[in-house]
Amino acid sequence: MSTERARDLLNYLASVDGWVTADELAGRLGVTTRSVRNYVVTAKELHHPHDVIETGSRGYRLQHDVFHAVIAASDAERFQSPAAERPVDRQRRILEYLVSLDDPVNLHSLAAEFYVSESTLESDLRRARTVLGHSGLALGRIGSELRVLGSEQDKRRMLARLFLDAQSRQVIDLPIVEAHFASPPLGQVKTLILDGLERSGYRANEFGLGSVLLSLAVALLRMSNGQTLLPATEGSPTDPALEALAADLLGPLVAAPPPPEVRHLALLLDAQVARPTDGSPAKADEPVVDAAVTVMLDRATEVYGVDLRDVAFHRRLAQHVVNVLGRAKENLSSPNPMTKSLKANYPVVYDIAVFMASTIGTRFDVQLDENEIAFLALHVGTFVEQRSPRSRRLRCAFVCPDYYGMHAFLRDRIEQELHDVIDVTSVVTRTDPDWASIDANIVLSTIPAPAGVSDVIHIQPFLTDDDAARIRNRVARIHRSQRRNELKQQLLTYLSPEFFVVDLAATDDTTAIRALGELMVSADVIDESYVQAALEREQMSSTAFGDVIAVPHAMDMTARRTAIAFAVNKSPIPWGDNRVQAVALVAFAADDRAAFQSVFDQLVSVFSSREDANRIIRATEDFDTFLDALTRVMEN
């Protein structure tokens, strides 16, 4: 238990850039500060002689460079180690061993191979059956003889998945792939693929390319053992240029590559890597997808109040969805290292992507994972960022006594450097301005303001880079303050004592959503269908943002009135792969859809600061103390 807790502690420290106090760690882990000290000792012992945790008067801080170097080395070593480090590692290795074999293996021999008792092995096999069942495979057993049953293609997918599950990062490290599957240098193969795609008029999807190289490494190992694909009875036709590229790639690696292997590699390139250039002819299924994307964008625009109807965006998204469906048909997925970042920093964009994934899944009877959702979010975020207006320019007053027209020169310089953030609406050229009568969001002055006059930025007669930086920083602070004040008023409107709970009795995300949902159902704010919709949304992608807050909600704004049911827990609630101490079940009415984006974004933003979140959680004893703490944090 202490080892697992030590790993939890390390994972939490890895998500933070600076120092973390013992109190904060104790709150995150649901233990005492004394236990935290013990877990730190255990964590250091796990990685001895490397000093991965720095201890000081401010608490504990992870040495990120050292830690990630150790993890990268341990990833490579673990794949070659005869002994599994943890039960989950052992279970993964047992699965890989079973999938790799064509012949049955004896239960007693398998237990001896992995140095475990037969009772432990039986427990591991129960988990293996569940994992295999989710991948189209099954564990056959006759007496003490075991064998994995299923297609060669599903077995290869399982081997690739097991490899990815063992990775510490969501990035496919080619040297580790090469070492694990005894493959040829994959960097050279990657270069050949990129060159071949360019010759054939395609752009390359770098994220998908790593997955194709992993699949190729698995395929080469299987083919070397005589385990080849059967001829396909159906499947989407591929571009002859991609089939030729696949044949060129396999030719030097495999003697007489079987046609099904060439075709399958071409399918992988088509679904995961090859991206058409602008003006490329549409694929056969694109008209159907095009119509579905039109409906999807119209519906997303209606639900989220963000206009997504644009011809160029529609075209790019339709092409992407065609490839999404191709990957789903082949049961393929590419790890996206930006998933967590997109989710944490652009929650509404990510939520729109979840909505799109749900729509695509329903329309085409496929299921999209979080990696695919993140790729959709990249498309949505890029479009929204391009279309969104820049921050509103602040009204600026400029005080500069007239001296041979110096004020005009300086004003021109200010407007040239800062035209995107301020609008100079008034110029005062007197040495004795009436400071109280100046009406502006921000005042710039070349002369010192008298005592008692605040919010004036003193600048030099010739604008310096430091002046420009200070002005931009002040503008950003003013915008931030304005947004926080707006959000504070909205939250005060939507929060209420009847929907507030301290230490919610919940064992996981499902029980928490049901408990908070029941409060609003009883008050006739929502009905049971909204609670069920929130649970379904949660199953698509967790609404936990780090290890602080979860914001569950349905994708349709069907509440009778807008309200937020809020829970603050001193001990964390398990929430998917996270543990959260604050839960905000958000129910929006259609009339308030315009406020959804600001409330959602800013609610996540407030609790994204661990220091601020801890301050709120520690101070909360009831609804009033929660509001006081929340208000103080937002005002600061």
Automatic annotation (TrEMBL):
Keywords associated with the record: Activator, Repeat, Transcription, Transcription regulation
Stretches assigned to the PTS EIIA type-2 domain: 493-633
Any Pfam family the entry gives: PTS_EIIA_2
Highest taxon listed in the record's lineage: Bacteria
One BP annotation, GO: regulation of DNA-templated transcription
PRD domain location: 284-390
PANTHER family the UniProt entry points to: CRYPTIC BETA-GLUCOSIDE BGL OPERON ANTITERMINATOR, TRANSCRIPTIONAL REGULATOR MANR
Full protein name: Lichenan operon transcriptional antiterminator
Organism: Lysinibacter cavernae
